[in-house]
Amino acid sequence: MRRDAIFYTIFKRVPGLFFELVEQPPAEAASYRFESVEVKEPTFRIDGVFLPPTDATSQMIFFAEVQFQRDELLYHRFFSESMLYMYRNPSLYDDWYGVIILQSRSLEPENTTIHRSLLNSSQVQRIYLDELGSPDEQKVGISLMQLTIASETQMVQEAKRLIERVQQEQITVLAKEEIIDVITTIAVYKFANLSREEVETMLGVKLEETRVYQEAKQEGREEGLEQGLELGRQQGLELGLQRGREQAKLELVPQFLALGMSMEEVAQLLNLTIEQVRLASE
Questions:
Q1: End-of-domain residue from the set 69, 103, 131
Q2: Domain boundary residue among 77, 101, 131?
Q3: pTM, two decimal places
Q4: How confident is the model over 143-177, as pLDDT tens digits?
Q5: pLDDT at residue number 229
Q6: Which long-range contacts (CB under 8 A, 24 or more apart) does 244-249 make?
Q7: Peptide bond into 42 cis (omega under 30)
Q8: What angle is formed at CA 30 by the lines to CA 24 and CA 34, rounded to 5 degrees?
Q9: CATH code at 21?
Q10: What is the 3 state secondary structure string of 56-106?
């Protein structure tokens, strides 16, 4: 299971969760959109970018990196890709901010000296999920993200408590339905080997009522339709080839008959019926 994939899925669905982590979120945080952007010459793909709305007072772009395994080139890649994107889009933004989310401090690259001025600046924030404290004491958004690093046993208990908390408390940052969706999304990632009924029983929710289930259902329909279309194309191609071969055989019938062969001999040679040979000769 790739936990960074969970985060990017969550950020795509609910961009506002990201700004629960940011020390000084912009006033337009709720209007940002999360994208994966490509930077050409050379080509880079940055998975986590939060783009400001066009009418924002300050056009600040946020670069996010989620890391759950050691990578000694983490900061080389993060800063070079971010700066290259800014270089390729010099007139779109007037400021930038970087957020690096790590499972634990132990995943820090061994040598960070070369990037010390950026890492220690006011434009970069490093977050260690295992140092955020008890999930019950955090904002709902942060508690959601902490679910991704919980063990399977802990995740079940923490998810149930979080669902109860969401249903009882007055939540203002996110809609309760969105929070339940995020919890079920994490559960689906973590317990991919369980059936829908088992996940429902485990969390005490109905997956049919959540967006993650509806989206998966729709994706299944679309995938089935695509497979059906592909099968149809293949069958159509095979049928076309078969008819083409039969037509080519029929066009040879008069030539073989002209050589003195009988209808029976032509039918046997071309694997046709006597009736097909007779019709082709007329």
A1: 131
A2: 131
A3: 0.63
A4: 888 888 888 888 888 888 888 888 777 665 566 77
A5: 45
A6: none
A7: yes
A8: 95
A9: 3.40.1350
A10: CCCCEEEEEEEECCCCCCHHHHHHHHHHHHHHHCCCCCCEEEEEEEECCHH
